[in-house]
Amino acid sequence: MGTCRESEPTQIFVPGPIIVGAGPSGLAVAACLSNRGVPSVILERTDCLASLWQKRTYDRLKLHLPKHFCELPLMPFPKNFPKYPSKQLFISYVESYAARFNIKPVFNQTVEKAEFDDASGLWNVKTQDGVYTSTWLVVATGENAEPVFPNIPGLKKFTGPVVHTSAYKSGSAFANRKVLVVGCGNSGMEVSLDLCRYNALPHMVVRNSVHVLPRDFFGLSTFGIAMTLLKWFPLKLVDKFLLLLANSTLGNTDLLGLRRPKTGPIELKNVTGKTPVLDVGAISLIRSGQIKVTQAVKEITRNGAKFLNGKEIEFDSIILATGYKSNVPDWLKVLLSIYYLSYSLSCYIYVNVYMYM
Fold first, then answer.
1. Which uninterrupted H or E stretch holds 174?
2. What's phi and psi for 31, nearest 5 deg?
3. Which long-range contacts (CB under 8 A, 24 or more apart) does 6-13 make?
């Protein structure tokens, strides 16, 4: 009797770099390479460009930074775009960008493993359809590849809907409901703000200290002010100025249950990666009582939650604004000790670009 052998995976040699991820970073790398006459292949696990923006963001999302800080190389945003483009406008910009540079990713290609072969000096990138081989590998999957689900005691026994912000679209589905929002970052603040527009009553869980800054100060972007000052002054001095600006605009957020970290906002971002919240209206609703700030959750019950301060409140729904994580360690079989932010023809790079949302 003959024996059944598994067919060998299709081998696909790529003369230029293999780029994993068709988000803004991956497209930017492909465009810059194309502009210098270097071919590349983008492998994208979903069926569209910028899948995080298209599939995992809420409807009211806008860029939190002025458009000129977020534009991709070689193509600025259209002049008629507003200062803070909406989700829909940003997606249209990304699609126009890909069309302009004739970037055509290979969609529905989930990278299962990528490893460097010392003998051949080549990268082997395995997907469900074959093995792509190249001298160079660009990892452009970003920091937000997979949603983070917290391990909260009792969460599975809650009888109402439990939704991660990656699946949240609009507060319309939560109209007139009492909602527990777990997380107080940019997503948690904006989701709470959105819920209020549909007469929901959000209770936002604040577990740790958080920096909240105004998005704008007298018409100027706070981020833009910070970037300009850093050209001339030390980081710690700029941080002190930002906190002075925040206190004069937003007041003492400690009084609202939002304790500020002892480390300044920019220094904290540099050291830990934790991004400050840019306020677009949530603080005023917290101050008015429309958004309730609560302490950390002790456990979830069938109908609500018990908190560390002993209180117990019933809720109709729970929204997890607990962020995302990278999935690179799951498939990149190499020790990542150095992160490169620019392209190199002698090694792979890990594009670690954070698009502020």
1. none
2. -65, -45
3. 9/126, 9/130, 9/131, 10/129, 10/130, 10/131, 11/130, 11/131, 11/133, 12/130, 12/131, 12/132, 12/133, 13/132, 13/133, 13/134
User: What pLDDT was estimated at residue 6?
Assistant: 59
d(CA 16, CA 332): 19
Q: Residue 203 corresponds to which tokens in the numbers above?
A: 């209770």
Cβ neighbours, 10 Å, residue 73 = 12
For the whole model, what pTM was predicted? 0.87
Lowest mean pLDDT among 89-98, 167-176, 281-290, 335-344: 335-344
Query: Nearest-CA neighbor of 257 among 289, 217, 215?
Result: 289
The DSSP line for 188-226 is HHHHHHHHHTTT-EEEEE--S---EEESEETTEEHHHHH
Q: Which residues contact 166 (CB under 8 A, 6 or more apart)?
A: 56, 147, 324
What's CA 135's distance to the chain center, in Å? 29
Indicate the SS3 state at residue 25. helix
Give every CB contact of residue 339 below 8 A, 6+ residues apart in sequence: 350, 352
- Other CB atoms within 10 Å distance of the CB of residue 80: 6
Q: How far is CA 214 from the centre of its chain?
A: 20
Query: Which among 308, 326, 57 is positioned nearest to 186, based on CA atoms?
Result: 57
Residue 51: both structure tokens together: 């899948």
Phi, psi of 134 (to 5 degrees): -160, 165
pLDDT (0 to 100) of residue 288 = 95
Secondary structure (DSSP) of 298-350 = EEE-SSEEEETTS-EEE-SEEEE---EE--HHHHB-S-------S--TTS-EE
Rounded to the nearest 10 degrees, how much is the dihedral formed by the CA atoms of 331, 356, 318, 211?
Answer: 120
In the Cβ-directed half-sphere of 242, how many Cα atoms lie within 13 Å? 33
